[in-house]
Known about the structure:
Distance between the termini: 38 Å
Radius of gyration: 22 Å
Domain Methylamine utilisation protein MauE: 34-163
Oligomer: single chain
Main location: membrane
Pfam families: MauE (PF07291)
Number of strands: 0
Transmembrane segments: 78-98, 105-124, 144-163
Subcellular location: Membrane
Amino acid sequence: MAIKQDAQVAEAGAVDGGDQWTEETSTSERALDVLSALARFGLAAMWITSGASKLGKHMTVTQSIEAYEIFTPHWSGLLANLIGPLELAGGLILLLGIKIRPAGWVSFGVLVLFIIGLASAYARGLQIDCGCFGPDPDHTDGDLRWAIIRDVGLIAVTLFMIYRPFKKFALYP
């Protein structure tokens, strides 16, 4: 009986301009597709740019990490070897669309860790450059608040991408 009523409601909707509702839905779906594509490819570009800016700059990346006063020089050197290639790889994974949601969750986790580091430095009154897009340890007047706000915005974009991944041009959805 419920199925019969649903069919009658669907037929009535088609007669009463139900096609307009379908057009609105498809337009909103297209808009969400565009936003999702911008989120995925924008995050990919951000990670690729960030990672590429650190390649071949071991000493300056190490100094940028040491400026946070969280890690020992040994750990800062190890992280300097890893962070650029990992950011680059994460960006390429998003760009290629390999396991988009899991890649999004990794991006989310990394951004949360970056925010924790930035907030720690800010709370301790450190005047450092975050080193996010090209390490520059001589640049000491970076505003860590804006870096935190930027990363919170990137988390919002990441969560949207996780919620509604853009699967076109993906190697594996």
